[in-house]
């Protein structure tokens, strides 16, 4: 009984704030209308188990739902397909009560079996999901990854409206994981009927359904009239025109043919747009969970010397690099961006101090500097940023040769450890979910430091990894003690300086004059670039 | 003729085999791992290995290439790594747009190139000739990226005569076709000029003039059909030149053809798509050349097939 009371109390404690955060729809919102969004690249796939780029991320969010969701325009969790949830005292068992009467686009009601099927599917190696690793804390994940099981041991269907998920270790981020696209609920019959083409014929429970997809030309979403959330979506449809250069998209927006340029304002046009008051008024700015950083390969001399790494940190003029991208960022002090819980506000990072950097380098035995290589992705503005870094380094005697390569080549050089320094621009930088742990595991923790991993500085501190595991063993992700622990992890990591955090990018987008809805919906931190479910047109 | 055709077909097949081999080798030794792209940054080493095994990328080169060829023989171009769709379907969806663009471009380069070449030949050594030859030089050397943006800005944005990029109607076709055609028109005008000058020197032209035919009649009825022959044979070869330009032009104008598909695949190292588009383009070039060689003797009987 005591246990029941305790778990009920915890459930209320966790569920009530979530319920209180329910979104209040805009009273001015009017239903109807269709908007046009453009993109440079064709959409790769709309299969939620596979799609993993920022372009299809928000599209998938509009077609599918998971057990958890976010309050529009924010990073606050709220229940999605789960009406409520209960967490056991030890933090190892999550019981989700499903919302009744939710229907897939094919008309069938969604039940607990679908949740189980979807989680099994995303973790089965045959699915080749890039998100499978997120589900590592569910009991039975290892057996799935090894191919010795075809269903997750930890996921149980209690009854058609209840699903229980057992974890093999406490995981404070688990509710965020349930809000990831990878955890979207899909109907088995539709997946099996479409086979490998499910990504082109998606069926979900989302606010929109896919009405048309002409390869290389356009995708048309139409309103799901049976959507389970009251009153949304407002729009009758969204047309995504693909294959359009950002600069052409901007010209079309200025001509009134496009409502939102999905790739944003092209850097070359940013100053021009902001100089025109009429256009600047339609620009929306928002923070994002992003940090641009330089990795210093701690396993390679001379970066195996902490003083060299600290000297590099002090040599970089972050303010000037921020100017290169027209001030669309704030200089960074630490791995976590300011809008991320756990960001250490009191930690000022390394100051820009050339003399001190020189002194540190001399102490490390490199008074005359040394030669090294800086890898960078070859798309603007990254090569320009690399040149600024190169200049800053030259002031303390470090002669860095720039290796400007295609994205895949930089990822390879970073992963196999051959790159002494990598400027992260354009790759591996935006958080998958708004929790400090997401900046650790793959890019700073020991797990990502192996051959081919995304921890390109190859930094692996067992003590900090243990501290990180402790922080993730809390039940409540927002527990101040947990966030303090995370701050400690990142500040201690910065003492060893495996990275030079350079800037936290701000996101700028533009909308046509007829678009309505809060600005936050256009820079939604989890539905990039637009939260299609809640925006509307005014005419 | 049948012997010649059979020999050329075998040659073409060998060329395509060679191209497939070279492309496969290049993609195999590329310092980038497609599995990393597919697996993403949160993948465990085990997941990465599973994907590698499923795609057969853990096999030796010769096995991978053999499997690919075997698939090709059965008409299977493989499945895109990232889109998880048949490459043949993706290419088939985009090929019509590229063919339309090519047809438009060929028409454009012939009209522009031949007109400039004829006028230059008729005004040989004068200001018009020199002016046109400068224009053709600029046309040949201007980067297509610049030309396409310039045309887009002037004729679509400023004058509003054409849509700003996109696909669907004849109006959408004009600017990308002209961009692509401008490059070819430079070559054609120079070739047409020298060919025309050559023909105008011939005795039968002098005879025609001596008979008192009008200048227009001499040029259009007697000189042009002969001067244009070597140029028509060039069209097939031209397809190869187009293939390079199509990537740029399709990207700028948002034209949903295979050039755009190839560009996106290269950025994401989606190897099956890159292989597929390369082979389809190579086929087009090989067929174009073959066609040019076969048609040439029909147009000009002095050429014989051996």
Find the biggest chain interface: A-B, 56 and 55 residues
Largest sheet of chain A: 7 strands, mixed
- Tell how many strands the DSSP assignment of chain A holds: 20
Distance between the termini of chain B: 8 Å
Structural class of chain A: alpha+beta
User: Helix amount of chain A, in percent?
Assistant: 25-40%
**Whole-number mean pLDDT of chain B:** 88
CA-atom Rg of chain A in angstroms: 24 Å
Assess the beta-strand content of chain B as a share of residues: under 5%
What structural class do helix, strand and pairing data of chain B support? mainly alpha
Mean pLDDT of chain A: 91
Indicate the radius of gyration of chain B in whole angstroms: 24 Å
Essential attributes:
heterodimer; A: 539 residues; alpha+beta; seven-stranded mixed β-sheet; five-stranded mixed β-sheet; 20 strands; B: 306 residues; mainly alpha; 14 helices; globular
Structure characterization notes:
- The complex is a heterodimer of chains A (539) and B (306).
- By secondary structure, chain A is α+β, with helices and mostly antiparallel strands.
- Helices cover 29% and strands 19% of the residues of chain A.
- In chain A, strands 12, 13, 14, 15, 16, 17 and 18 form a 7-stranded mixed sheet that branches. Chain A has a 5-stranded mixed sheet with strand order 8-9-10-1-11.
- In chain A, strand 8 (208-214) and strand 9 (218-223) form a beta hairpin.
- The longest helix of chain A has 19 residues, at 2-20.
- Chain A is globular and about 70 Å long.
- Residues 1-20 of chain A have low confidence and may be disordered.
- The termini of chain B are close together.
- Chain B has helices at 2-29, 34-39, 45-54, 61-73, 87-122, 127-141, 144-158, 170-200, 203-210, 215-227, 229-232, 234-253, 258-267, 271-299.
- In chain B, helix 5 (87-122) packs antiparallel against helix 6 (127-141) and helix 6 (127-141) crosses helix 8.
- Helices cover 78% and strands 0% of the residues of chain B.
- Classes of the chains: A alpha+beta (539), B mainly alpha (306).
- Chains A and B meet through helix 7 and helix 14 of A and helix 2, helix 3, helix 5, helix 7 and helix 12 of B.
